[in-house]
Write a structure and sequence with these properties.
mainly beta, Immunoglobulin-like, 11-stranded mixed beta sheet, 43% strand, disordered C terminus
């Protein structure tokens, strides 16, 4: 019993150990209530090995008020961590508190344990020092610096790198980033590890490549503080006040740091080659050593893990290490986002000898990241009204892989200011077109005659055609007027914009006062079919790169395909040996496509993946000896027929189903262009071309019945029924509509519409 207890306690200990990667804290003043109390939001971000670890804060000093609400959200997660599972997950705990005084207070959260570190960091501590005194320089309560950092930074051992940490302050204060020195509140080890230098004034962390690679991380425990640039007074509601001073500058000094720099190897060298590094002496930028006296306005913890990976053949960005390209925003860029409208941050990188895999990010709640089919990344975020006039830091880095090696780009951070809506725009998305409606009353001084879509070469693209005295209105096809198609792992987007131009030239403008970007977004996945007991309704699907397809599978009287079977006559009845004429017709919102029917089969039940089926077409090859292919009227149509036959068993009805796909017309690399492939060839796996052919779609029609011999010739027969058939449901469907993006100058937003209702098959 004793030994079992020891084992159990050991397991519990192991379960609670080695899980913390780091965290950050910040606060946001939210105004006063009618009773004079204050509202403040405390943001606690922490990264653990899973998303399940709880995080709680306690009042450490002062009057911390009372907790009103608490919300916990997942910000980002990944699988390239240094621990055995590789898992990490960053969450944010948002506490809304009511304060009964504006005097300073301090919150604290602490627990055990960091992931295994190489610099002796064990327990973790995060603290938030808040002072909401009314400033003499702004007349407003003091505000928090914007802090953010990626939970896990990594760099190859032989590659020196500098990280400019976020140091933006909405009050214009001077921000200092120092290493923690208070074991109770700020740190466990309280010593900057060897191999790193920290420029406190510029908030820049230097890695000098003097450290060996190790599977354990460095746990870095830093503190962000802000100081006024001039002498100010903080006034409190109880009549007291406090004075804050700017930092005192000392003489300039130069720091000489020896950084071994790896020689760049030729591009043809493989990842297995490790060139012999050469060492040079590098003089760090001249910095100012500043004396900080007194209490800072704010004091916020900033902790993260730093992993030193094995050496890379070349430290030049763009080879193994990802290199950022336009339109990636620069580090420290200031962006604006309108309330309730989507901000889009586009990120592009390249790496010649590694494969771009993922983007990791840290920022406010409800951030979403996507990877497009062109290996670009998009971060989207929609601020809410509660965030108006607040500022948020968003940090990101791109990761690439080569074999088991993971390479990380530099870290970039931007500051997003939340502003009110500039221009009111609605976007309506339909199956084949989009409509954009701009409210003229929300902007002034703009000549609507100077507005145009990306292209306006035909009448459909002319904004003046449908506009009126109150609104600018444009309705145009999804694939016209300069609309650009973009896709990620979940959506297909049709993007366009309204901009200004001069009457004298359609290439340039000197009236660039407004730019409205918008798009229609259609989900690529869903599992919907139309419910039926007899005739099957049309099947509608969305497929990446091809827009919306509506498949119509019908039966006809004869080979002229002029008269379709009435859906009220289902189930259809046929005599043995009579010919059954069928047609599959696809309607697409995107031109230049062809349809290819890869397989068709018959089954007695309308059940997906029913095992006992009769093959009619397999891998594009005709299997049934009586099948005939008839000439279609267009490339997105397939006509065929076969003779009715006996299907052994006591089945009253059967269905016919086909697997098909859409491809880019004229492209010899698509499955559609290959035609019939025999079974030995079909077994060879072939990677689908993401942007030139769709996935397989399944359509079916029925039920059918074999007319009994007694019904057709007057003679008695045994129970032999013909059943021709279907194998399955359909994939995906009706357009769910998400719309709208508006940008005033460079600000983007979106209006969402709900998906059409469907019935699960």
């Amino acid at each position: 019993m004793a030994s079992s207890l020891v084992i159990l306690l050991t397991l519990v200990s192991l379960a609670s150990a080695s899980h913390h990667y780091g965290g950050t804290v910040s606060f946001a003043y939210k105004g006063r209530n009618p009773d004079g109390t204050l509202m403040v939001d405390i943001h606690n971000r922490a990264t653990f090995t899973t998303c399940q670890y709880p995080q709680s804060t306690v009042c450490y000093s002062g009057n911390c008020g009372s907790l009103r609400t608490s919300q916990r959200v997942v910000l980002d997660s990944g699988t390239n961590g240094p621990v055995s599972s590789g898992q990490w997950c960053e969450t944010e705990q948002i506490e809304k508190r009511v304060l009964y005084t504006d005097k300073p207070f301090q919150m604290r959260s602490a627990s055990c344990c960091w992931v295994t570190t190489r610099n002796g960091v064990n327990d973790w501590r995060l603290s938030t020092f808040v002072d909401l005194g009314k400033r003499s320089d702004t007349g407003e309560p003091n505000r928090s610096p914007d802090t953010a950092i990626l939970p896990l930074l990594r760099v190859p051992q032989n590659c020196p790198r500098s990280y400019k940490l976020m140091d933006f302050d909405p009050d214009g204060d001077r921000v200092r980033c120092r290493y923690g020195n208070d074991p109770n509140l700020e740190c466990s080890s309280c010593h900057l590890p060897s191999g790193f230098q920290l420029d406190e004034n510029s908030c820049t962390l230097h890695y000098d490549n003097s450290t060996s690679a190790d599977s354990r991380v460095f746990g870095l425990e830093m503190v962000v503080e802000d100081f006024p640039r001039q002498h100010i007074t903080l006034q409190y509601t109880d009549g007291t006040s406090a004075t804050r001073f700017p930092p005192l500058a000392r003489r300039k000094r130069e720091a000489t740091i020896t950084w071994p720099i790896t020689t760049t190897v030729a591009p043809w060298m493989t990842t297995a080659m490790t060139p012999r590094p050469t060492t040079t002496t590098t003089t760090a930028p001249t910095t100012t050593s500043t004396s900080y006296h007194g209490t800072p306005l704010s004091r916020l913890s900033l902790q993260f893990s730093f992993l030193v990976d094995p050496s890379v053949p070349s430290c030049e960005e763009g080879l193994y290490l990802p290199k950022f390209l336009d339109p990636t925003p620069r580090n420290g860029a200031r962006l604006e986002a309108e309330v309730n409208k989507e901000l889009e941050i586009r990120i592009k990188a390249q790496a010649s000898y590694s494969t771009l895999q993922n983007i990791i990010m840290s920022g406010p709640a409800n951030l979403a990241k996507h990877k497009t089919t062109h290996d670009e990344f998009v971060i989207r975020w929609t601020p809410v009204t509660d965030g108006l006039n607040d500022h948020y830091a968003i940090c990101f880095a791109v990761e690439s892989t080569s074999g088991s090696r993971v390479y990380q780009s530099e870290m970039r951070c931007v500051v997003v200011s939340v502003v009110k809506e500039h221009v009111k725009v609605d976007v309506i998305c339909t199956e084949f077109n989009m409509t954009v409606i701009v409210d003229k009353s929300t902007f002034s001084g703009l000549d609507e005659d100077h507005l145009r879509l990306s292209e306006s070469n035909n009448v459909d693209c002319n904004l003046s055609t449908r506009s009126n005295s109150t609104h600018i209105i444009g309705t145009f096809p999804l694939n016209a007027c300069g609309t650009q198609i973009e896709e990620d792992e979940t959506n297909l987007m049709f993007k366009n914009l309204i901009t200004t131009y001069d009457n004298s030239s359609r290439l340039i403008t000197r009236h660039h006062q407004l730019e409205v970007q918008f798009y229609c977004s259609y989900p690529k996945t869903g599992n919907v079919t139309a419910g039926f007991t007899a005739h099957r309704k049309n099947v509608t699907v969305w497929e990446k790169g091809f827009g919306k397809f509506t498949y119509q599978f019908e039966f006809y009287d004869d080979q002229t395909y002029l008269r379709m079977k009435d859906e009220n006559t289902y189930p259809l009845e046929y005599d043995i040996g009579s010919r059954i004429y069928m047609e599959i017709d696809a309607t697409s919102s995107v031109n230049n496509t062809v349809m290819f029917v890869e397989s068709c089969s018959a089954a007695p039940y309308d059940i997906p993946n029913y095992q006992n089926t009769y093959s009619i077409i397999e891998n594009g090859c005709n299997v049934d000896p009586t099948i005939q292919i008839h000439s279609p009227d267009k490339p997105t149509q397939f006509r065929f027929s076969l003779e009715a036959f006996k299907f052994i068993g006591l089945h009253d009805q059967v269905y016919i189903s086909c697997s098909l796909m859409m491809c880019e017309a004229g492209n010899s690399n698509t499955r559609c262009s290959k035609g019939c492939i025999r079974s030995t060839q079909a077994n060879n796996r072939r990677k689908r071309e993401a942007t030139i052919e769709s996935t397989k779609h399944f359509v079916s029609q029925g039920p059918l019945r074999l007319r009994r011999s007694a019904e057709s010739s007057g003679h008695e027969v045994v129970n032999l029924n013909l059943n021709l058939a279907f194998m399955a449901g359909c994939l995906l469907a009706a357009v769910g509509m998400v719309c709208g993006v508006v940008v005033y100058k460079t600000k983007i937003s979106k209006v969402k519409y709900q998906p059409l209702s469907t019935i699960e098959s």
